[in-house]
Fold these 3 entries.
Entry 1:
Amino acid sequence: MKADQYVVIGNPVAHSKSPAIHARFAELTSQQLDYQRLLAPLDGFGATVRDFVAKGGKGANVTLPFKLEAFALATELSERAKIAGAVNTLKFEPGRIYGDNTDGMGLVADIVRNAGVNLRGKRLLLLGAGGAARGALLPLLQEQPAALTIANRTLAKAQDLLQQANSLSDRCELQTCRFEDLQQPFDVIINATSASINDDVPPLAATVFSKETLAYDMMYAAAPTAFLRLAVSHGAQCRDGLGMLVEQAAEAFALWRSVRPPSGQVLAEMRAALLASQA
Ligand code: ATR
């Protein structure tokens, strides 16, 4: 029997590590599946998905720049996808396209399970108010932090996100500000800006970091990002987004296959491979 077909759809998509992650998940859980990269034309996401579904495709991960189009294409959405306003995981069933967003859950799983940092009662700082920050909002609030500050270069976007957060939690102390206004230390600082792509970092005062602070960058690279270098220079604990990548994939895999893969093991293997590629 032909193995079930899955893809990651993006443009570009050649760099995606998802096929390697899902192949390893499948191997470790003895699941028969085939997972490939699928490049969609910038103006052809919907047609690419429909073609894949017609050929019997069972599911897809969706990466840049199609997460909003995937949201629009889904015929049913998970609660967290609705709140994120974006979809990174599609599940195809007869007459139904189910859209989910596993990015925020992946972030929380990596912080809580892999880094061992409980978020309940903690003071969190979320840097950025774009798609990545929005996707993290509900899963972060579900951990019941004591306070969440959303800081963004464009304050109005942080305020929009705050409104949404207000409707999701009445227990967490919520506020917004500009980077320059931040002074007090936080327990966890999550960089959801795209500044790291340009090796840039939001202007943060040294006082927002302490030795106990976990500084988390949603991005990862072979070398630490500018945000993580800054955090280290102020004595904070640091973590990049490799674990988030593996954990969001694990959530998607569990949705498709109803089996939870050993994501901690796969993360350790990927970390070792990343370090070896640097040596
Ligand atoms: P993503 O899907 O990665 O979140 P996005 O929706 O375009 O991408 O959002 C990018 C986020 O990074 C925004 O919060 C953006 O700030 P603005 O809302 O002010 O544009 C933030 N960002 C990008 N480059 C930045 C930089 N160099 N310094 C600080 N913030 C930056």
Note: The chain has a mean pLDDT of 96.
Entry 2:
Amino acid sequence: MIKNTPPMGWNTWNTFAKDINEALILQSAEALVSTGLRAAGYEYVVIDDCWALRERDRNGRLVPDPEKFPHGMKYVADAVHAMGLKLGMYSCCGAMTCAEYPGSLNREYTDARTFARWGVDFLKYDYCFKPAGLEGKSLYRRMGLALANSGRDILFSGCSWGSDDTHLWIGTTGANMWRSTPDIFDSFESVKDLIKRQYDILPYGGIGCFNDMDMLVVGMHGKGNVGLTGCTDDEYRLHFAAWCLLASPLMIGCDVRAMDGETKRTLTNRELIAISQDARGNRPYMMKFWDNADLPVIVRALANGDVALGFFNMTEGNANFWVSADDLGVPCFSGKRLEGKEVYTGEEARFVNGVVQSEVRPHSCAVYRLHVVNAR
Ligand code: GLA
């Protein structure tokens, strides 16, 4: 399936890992609807690893664990669809998944058909237990073709963590998004590391195959499977804004049944989601302020001519960011200027002599949506 905007949804892994079951999936789907997350654009409910029995059935098919999914997966898919949502599932190109359930190696077509029969709309495809002698790109192409021939439109979400120069071959596999990073953890160090990995690979994302920086940890507050120290609300806001500006898929990882108000506000920020889902799909660019990789400035040209500008302070001290309007494509002698607001606070951008400045606290960000107006 080709999606023209970064896919959005919720995934079980970050909080629940192996502790998943039908009730959790259906309650979480209901929560996506009742909290307004579905209306904000989150549509995929993704069951990650640990849903299957450890062995295939006599016909070589994957079997959902009957203790976790007593009515099978078609039932879950139907219920999720009835809520206006889509169902995602998980497998792996190796002999086993990362948590050691059966993988799809040499069973690609059988499994693609199984997922299609159940009514699955999205497949996350991992990279564990891959035989060293087989190339990841061939194995991903196999699954890409199997899904294309499965009889159902299934979004293919590659998850090879950027290994083996994924960016060079993923676009030939039929994948619609590709994991460019190792796993995220709920700490600011992890968020910062994943953002810094983007400087060199940004050209390899975009419409057709979005660069997936991994699921969001917003609102986990240290709880659950990848919960470590947790992050502050400022840090979660920075994390969410970076994923939006960099056009990463937005897959929520917290327990959506128990979100606090601040988490919901961050995840449903309309301005940021509009930047993430911008129809033009332009690739962003990223600069190091004062040549410091911990001070990224991210810019994205939007469909209506607006410019999204983000200042990200990942250092321990205050940062006085500035960018010249020339760097945003609107030189001050053009007879035009830029104006606009910060997306979280609503504060006006301050342009003086064609330079926009902003003082940003440690572990915090300022993101502006700027539009071009006639200079007075
Ligand atoms: C890998 C992936 C994670 C998750 C786990 C499941 O680590 O990168 O996102 O799917 O496997 O075991």
Note: Residues 40 and 268 are 6 Å apart (CA to CA).
Entry 3:
Amino acid sequence: MPTTQKLVRFTSDTDKALYEKALRSVDLAVRSYVWYLDPEGHIKHGNQQADSLASLERTRGMHFAEAIGLPASAEQWQPELQKIIKSGIGVFGARETVMVGGQPRQFSVDKIPTLDRWGGVNGLLLVVNDITEEAARENALLESEARYKAFIATTTDAVWCYEVSPPVDTRQPPDEQVAQIAERARLVECNQYYAELYGAENPDALLGAKMASTTISNFLGKLRLFIAAGYQLADKETARELEHGDLEYWQITAMGTVDDEGFLQRIWGTSKNITDRRRFLEKLHYQATHDALTELPNRTLLHQQIQQAIEEHNGNSQMALLIVDLDRFKEINDTLGHHAGDRLLRQLGPRLADEMQNLPGIIARLGGDEFAIFLSSVSGAEQASEVAQRILAAIRQPFVIEGFHTEISASIGIALCPDQATDVSTLMRYADVAMYRAKRDMVGVSVYQAEQDPHSPKRLALMGELGKAIRENQLLLHYQPKVVIGSNEVQGFEALLRWMHPTMGLVSPDDFIPIAESTGIIRPLTVWVLNEAIAQCKAWMDRGMEAAVAVNLSSRSLLDQEIVTTIAELLAAHRLPASMLELEITESAMMADPPRALLVLQAIHELGVRLSIDDFGTGYSSLSYLKKLPVQTLKIDYSFVVAMLEDEQDRIIVNSIVNLAHNLGLQVVAEGVENARTLAALQDMHCDIAQGYYLLHPQVASDAERWLRRREEEKELALSFEI
Ligand code: C2E
Ligand code: MG
Ligand code: MG
């Protein structure tokens, strides 16, 4: 705004001359445009700046308004000039906008009357300053202030400022500062939102409130942190308990002003209610760590909790992970529908929880029909197995779903930490391996054993050494006879692979055949066994001992078309009649890809090689399929035979298989004959052939040969006695 002020009068001409002289001397230095006008507004003089703007030579005597090209005409200027001249009172800081070079520029104009010695106004000094940049800055500031005001008025953050009066000495111990700030800080500014938090109608109604009594966002609770962080806080969360016990969450940002003497003067801040956001994040977290169907923790959370338990474990007890996989759950889905399947899964969680009793732990759903139970403190494998058995019994209780009674079973694998595994991934994998074993062997519960794990470090090491074993003659074959029941004649020998490992001793084929099958090593291994057995059979033949050999063929080999050519070539190379060779194939091997297996079997059969189905009764081959196979023999799995005397069911199974085989025109071999009573029982059932420890344990070729020769000698001796 222009200001007005009386001018100092010149008391003498000398004064005036001196003044003019002074004016001239600063003329060069002054950046302002200065004109001296007569009382009518015509230009009389001007300084250098004025001259550069509008040449004095041209404009002298012209009315100022016209000379400069002001938007206001000379007539419009006149009244104001006359007013100044009459009153002798100048006008300062008037704003004018003038177009310069096509651009509007802002000027501040001081109009200062000059007086003659009698006090009459004899002219007017115009001091003009270009304030375009300054005005722009001023405008920007005004605008930003307006923006700020609009922002804090409308923001949903609470904006506040407390003045600390008297200021608090920041060199005092923090506790004292906290107490003093709480008492002395008073609200001096806030927005509508903050006022409403405290039930005030507008900010003014709340101003003056003590910090100690405005505690909704609980900045007080963070004062110590605020002090420790150098009188500032950035996005710090606070929580406040509401009446009904729920928590309300806030996020505070604050900045204190500390003066040069180290006194805290003022604290500015914003508080944001983040309760909804927190709830939303909590919900997201819950969803990310829980299974939607059963609301049980999911794999991620289980992993985290086991990790934590491992870190906090004191070493006094064991932890156990149980992986529970439902058996034939798919059938429920297929017969009763997915909806029923879902309901069953939902009922499972509470049942499992009941069986945990007071044991600390967590139940999780890993996906599909797979669950996991982590027991964070058990005495060992025995206790974990007990829990598993209880769980199994609970799962086997009928479920009532939509009026139907449904029964289901499960397989549970157990692994222990730290006894077996010391990290989460290994523990999970071990429990998984154990679960598969329980499922495969249909035993319900199985505790992990490194020897059974196809991927255990020991097994992986074996795999690396298997290739070397073939090259370095560490492999050998044992032979076990198959004896015709009744006539006591030896029909042939089964060749059973053995690995004499340089450090581990004799390794069972059950330990390395599965590894060989999962890698390419099975091919050279099969070729080695075939070659060895065929050569042995031929050698026996050449020494007058006619005994066929049976070689086990793995499921992989059955999918390998080349095996047929290999067999033919080996038979030809050793000049062994094809009828002296028999191949044993397990049921499950044939079921991997029945049409392809059938092609290979057909081709082998056409070579004249005999075929038998091994481990019969453990797989799921269909009878119609069995009928199509070019096989001559069924071998009843030893597991049914060894216990058939004690177990009525096993006896029935053996008897049925014998009848079935005979009805299909096949020969039957019973494996696992361990005593004379079993042999007698098999004879009663009309089983054709027996194989087992009772007759002979598998032996190296020379021992098997000696056994057979002695047997024949004894037979001859007996015959000669008879004669
Ligand atoms: P398999 O073909 O069923 O062989 C019979 C298994 O029963 C042999 O175990 C034999 O030692 C065992 N056995 C024999 N008599 C009795 C008995 O009276 N009681 C009991 N409890 N067991 C008896 P082994 O030698 O450990 O072989 C295990 C399996 O390894 C074999 O089962 C066969 O599937 C596989 N296998 C052995 N040699 C080879 C081979 O050269 N190639 C392939 N692919 N697999 C082989
Ligand atoms: Mg066999
Ligand atoms: Mg067998």
Note: Confidence is low (pLDDT under 50) at residues 1-6.
